[in-house]
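[retry 2/3] L,D-transpeptidase catalytic domain: previous attempt timed out, resubmitting with same input.
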Amino acid sequence: MRMRFWLLWLVPFCYSACTQERQETPEETAARLESQMEDFFHNSLSEEELAEMDTHELDSLTMEATTKGGLLDRVTLEDSLRTLYEALQLEKLKLDYKVFRYGAIGFWGLQQEGRLSDRPLLSIIDFTKSSCEKRFYTLDLETKKVLFYTYVSHGRNTGGDKAEKFGNAVNSNLSSLGFYVTGETYTGSKGYSMRLDGTEKGINDNLRRRGVVVHNADYVSEDWIKKYGRLGRSQGCPALPKGIYREVIEAIKDRTAIFAYFKDDTYLAASRYLKLDELMARFDEAKEGEEYLDADE
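[retry 2/3] L,D-transpeptidase catalytic domain: success.
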């Protein structure tokens, strides 16, 4: 069965070749590319990346170079991500575009590796936010709907009201950063719960060994916030409110993605799931393989 890449189906033109009712003229293509490249440079590249590109490099981004070099594909993907972010209306829910973009790119990478089920669900935990704020999001990337938006705890050694420190060691009582894949459910000391598997060595690959699971907790509630000025803390588990935890677990169990975000430059630079150029190269290889199989058929 071939993998489906939901992110690439979100706009009328997509990363893979799309069938169009009318072929663009060269002039129309050039105009579209110019607009897309402008958005790409302003919205996608950091100031440091722009500074590293000299005038000659910028001038060389003609239609021919763009098409052959792959920038058009990246521009189109970036445009798809921005379109999806706006369709989900995540700005209203205080989820920054950059956080969503990281999560969506990692989702795509996990999907490429066959780690996820066919359900296009992405959950994001934004650990830059206070525990007094809702910071757990579950997104349906196909229907463009926010399924859940609620509170979530962090580990007791990760911080007080706000998360500050993360880790992967057994008995650390720290939350872990990065991309998780949801596992099976069970009933244990915390009631109905869901196991988690980390996908990044040295970052979160001890989740299952540590017993880090999704469960409910009395200390994840607005009443607790009113009484103590913050949520209670776990031993590293992303605990959810009692009134909604079962519904969330039922929706996201069995191989969907969770992205635990914090502005940690070391992690963001190192994660293989955030290296967009490498992910796109792997997609190209998979696409070429499919075309080869089609030719054999």
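[retry 2/3] L,D-transpeptidase catalytic domain: The chain has eleven helices and seven strands.
[retry 2/3] clearing retry counter.
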